[in-house]
Amino acid sequence: MYKSDNLKQYTKDLRNLIKNDDINFMSLKKYFTKYAEELHLKVTDDLVNKSLFNFEKNKLITQINYLNILHFGFSTKKKSLDFWISRGWRPDEVEEKIKSLSSFSYSYLLNKGYSKEEAKEIISNRVKSNHATKNPNFDTRVYGRSVDYYKKRVNKKTGVFYTEDEIHDIIVRLQSNASKIRWKKHKENPTYKSLNTRIEYYIEKGLSIKEAEIALKERQATNKVSYYISKFGKEKGLIKYNERLKNYSNKIKEDWKKNPYKRWNSGKRYSNSSILFFDSILNELKDLKNFVVYYKNNEFFIVNDSSIFFYDFCIKELKLIIEYNGLAFHPKTENQNWKSIWGNFSAAEIYKKDMYKKDLAESKGFTLLTIFEDEETEKKQTIINEISKRIRERHDNS
Fold it and tell me: Phi/psi at 43 (nearest 5 deg)?
């Protein structure tokens, strides 16, 4: 069961003692004396007896293949007092040892007269040395939150290399703890301004609270097509965005097969991307505060032939409706090679429905403008100009 190629000699010798059931006072004292330096032991009869007691106790609750040096009751944190006391040292002897282990700290080296560059290089070399293994392919640049790091390490509790499940659990725990620490810092320091995921970051840049809220929402909207285009360029960004839609569609269909009775919609008819867009329009057109704007949770609708049709953004007094179409839900043309992610609807079917909604709005005296999510940059100003023109015309006629 053991993979012992990369194990140290003192571990191999201990395995042999355990395997042969040869752990007693004399054999253990001989073993401790032989490897006192490697294990940082101060060997005394008292230490051997205490270690033997701990081992026998752990032997009752641990499988023999998993027994290792830690089952003698030794602590693992080298800079802690327990590490040394559990190995037979007196408290007054430990203080200097712990200090000597801290002698390579950054501040210590600076106080000793080293330059910042020299101190960084010394610490970097020591870290690489600590992470080195007998495996010549081991990358010393890999640290403790990497899968590769643990693949080349022996689990001290089991005595064998970490399994994939164990590695996954460790990394999840480390990331969770790191996240909790960051959140604790944010709670303790609410004016922390260095992260662009906090509203204070944008206020510090000189934006108003309303502008900062919009900027923060834009930063958080990582599922928009505009995000992919800005990050990867238009051609590659659209490819990656379409891949995301395809994966999302496949996931929905798989989940639907497993649980066809689950309610999949969130109860809202609008997308987060559309709200970000319309909020930015309202923020730029201050005159709109004098008008009733129907959007978000208060969408304008028209009833026709026992059907209700909701519209994304409507300024009723200006007779203007704006529809914001996500590429995942609306085709641009009826002949487009496109399929709905919510069913087997073709591009022609959805396009026909969209045109019907437009004709219905126009029959009621509205002008309907349509913008697709990949057209925000090009068409935003056109929409602002159209709204501004209608506001001026209304003022001139009043």
Answer: -75, 120
Fold for 272-397, please state it: Endonuclease; Chain A (3.40.960)
Residue-wise pLDDT for 60-83, tens only, equals 766 666 678 878 888 777 777 788
310: phi then psi, degrees, rounded to nearest 5: -95, 150
> What do you get for the CA distance between the two ends of the chain, in Å?
89
Per-residue pLDDT tens for 35-67?
Answer: 988 888 989 999 999 888 888 877 776 666 667
- SS3 readout for the chain: CCCCCCCCHHHHHHHHHHHCCCCCHHHHHHHHHHCHHHHCCCCCHHHHHHHHHHHHHHHCCCCHHHCCHHHHCCCCCCCCHHHHHCCCCCHHHHHHHHHHHCCCCHHHHHHCCCCHHHHHHHHHHHHHHHHCCCCCCCCCCCCCCCHHHHHCCECCCCCCECCHHHHHHHHHHHHHHHHHHHHHHHHHCCCCCCCCCCHHHHHHCCCCHHHHHHHHHHHHCCCCHHHHHHHHCHHHHHHHHHHHHHHHHHHHHHHHHHCCCCCCCCCCCCCHHHHHHHHHHHHHCHHHHHCCEEEEEEEEEEEECCEEEEEEEEEHHHCEEEEEECCCCCCCCCCCCCECCCCCCEHHHHHHHHHHHHHHHHHCCCEEEEEEHHHHHHHHHHHHHHHHHHHHHHHHHC
Q: Are 263 and 252 in contact (CB under 8 A)?
A: no
Taking the complete model, does pTM exceed 0.70, yes or no?
A: no
Q: Measured on CA atoms in the order 206, 211, 216, 218, is the torsion positive or negative?
A: negative
Check residue 1 and give its pLDDT: 36
Cβ within 8 Å of residue 76, ≥6 positions away: 70, 83, 156
Contact present, 326 and 226 (Cβ < 8 Å)? no
- Beta-bridge partner residues of 39: none
**Once rounded to an integer, what is the mean pLDDT over residues 237-242?**
78
Q: What is the mean pLDDT of residues 121-130?
A: 65
Q: Return the number of other C-beta atoms located less than 10 Å from residue 312's C-beta.
A: 23
**C-alpha to C-alpha distances, 318 to 351, 369, 397, nearest whole angstrom:** 26, 13, 12
Domain ranges of the chain: 9-102, 147-188, 190-220, 222-264, 272-397
pLDDT value at residue 106: 66
The Cα 162–Cα 165 span in angstroms is 8
